[in-house]
Amino acid sequence: MISVDQALDQILNLLEPLEVEEVPLAQASGRILARDVFAQRDQPPFSASAMDGYAVRLGDIDTGKPLEVIGESAAGGRFDGTLGPYQAVRIFTGAPVPEGADHILIQEDCTRDGAQITPHDNRDHSSYIRPRGGDFSQGTPLKAPVRLGPAEISLLASMNIATLPVRRRPIVALIATGDELVAVGETPDANQIISSNNYGLKALIEGLGAVARILPIAHDNADDLTAVLNMSQPSDLIVTLGGASVGDYDLVQSTAQEMGLETAFYKVAMRPGKPLMAGRLRSTPMIGLPGNPVSAMVCGHVFIRPALNALLGLGRSALPSQPASLSRDIPPNGPRRHYMRATLENIDGKLSVQPLSRQDSSLLSVLQQANALLIREANAPAAKQGDLIEVIPL
Ligand SMILES: Nc1nc2c(c(=O)[nH]1)N[C@H]1C(S)=C(S)[C@@H](COP(=O)(O)OP(=O)(O)OC[C@H]3O[C@@H](n4cnc5c(N)ncnc54)[C@H](O)[C@@H]3O)O[C@H]1N2
Ligand code: MOO
User: What is the pLDDT of residues 242-252, one digit of tens each?
Assistant: First the structure.
């Protein structure tokens, strides 16, 4: 059996970043920027007022003398003249600061009487001027690769970048296998269960900006599996669910091999997830996940997430983990790295992690209560309450 790190490395070796396509900004949410893009303009494009009030010369208002209001600068327009001594221009938030002014006197800090304003003694001392280019200037890059969330999208809009080079969305074909499975919404007979793994994986995959195609459930025979595997195009990755272990009806690997699968590895020293398999079927990378529902989802986090990141040009890396303090003693671990379902809490700024009491890989209700995977290394000795241990937040 190979280690989790070796398995991930071999999976990543099967994958190349996908092609780049141009999309309009309004359709770029959640996509991965594939090349650096550059601001088309300065922002703000002029020095701008941050408040409603009066553009003045700071030296004038310190004297306590009244100032004469000689014009107005509102957002979308500007005051064209130059401010002279003891003059003020009425100004609004976002409007250009007129020539000669170096300070915005907010309207709460003065009294207006006709065309005159008198500054109050007890004033706010901020200048309230946003300098030209203070946010970014023309040519400022947004560096690739980066996932485009709301902050990036609004920044790019402000940079006046109307279309963007992004990675094509990976297409993942999902194949659940097993005679006991029926699709959600159908009526199972007494010996059947509802197929959940394909829906859980679809949610995980689509949350990362990829497209999941749920194919028909394959029955536990080579003909049916072959027929469904033959439906897997178009796809950038084939993920099978179940049929991975050593039982008489675990036929995924042997059937795929008949179809030309080149196996990269089979079996990983991890719990849950031991019967994981990966390879290349014809030209498409394929990952065979174990059928136990929690095993499938844990492998989804540990392998499918990094695999999709690789297809999206986000590099080759394992999911980030961080240390947290154990909230109770735990026994030594066996020979496989254990990803324990756990709850992670921030207590007074310190992360505390508690493994859930039931760790069987069939328990979706336990997975749903977990918000982290606690990593127990292979053959780790017993750990004590308060020990620091690595966790992957989910
Ligand atoms: N003698 C051995 N038996 C098993 C071993 C082993 O090493 N020796 N490994 C165990 C481990 S670990 C796992 S994990 C499972 C994985 O088996 P398979 O990948 O072949 O999965 P199945 O047998 O098809 O199913 C296991 C379990 O999960 C349920 N299942 C399957 N697919 C779905 C689905 N889409 N949605 C919901 N539930 C699903 C299935 O009904 C079974 O209950 O093998 C152990 N056995
Ligand atoms: O490793 Mo299996 O994946 O325990 O449930």
Answer: 998 888 888 99
Residue among 241, 266, 295 to mutate when testing ligand 2 (max atoms within 8 A of CB): 295
CA geometry: angle at 346 spanning 344 and 352, to 5°?
50
Q: What is the ipTM of this complex?
A: 0.97
Q: Is the CB of 288 under 6 A from ligand 2?
A: no
pLDDT at residue number 245: 85
Tell whether domain 4-17+168-311 is in CATH 3.40.980.10: yes
The DSSP element (H or E) to which 229 belongs, if any, is helix 222-229
User: What are the sequence ranges of the domains in the chain?
Assistant: 4-17+168-311, 20-43+134-167, 48-130, 322-393
CATH superfamily of the 48-130 domain: Molybdopterin biosynthesis moea protein, domain 3. (2.170.190.11)
Which pLDDT tens digit goes with each residue over 32-76? 999 999 999 999 999 999 999 999 999 999 888 999 999 999 999
Nearest-5° Cα angle at 167, 162 to 170: 135
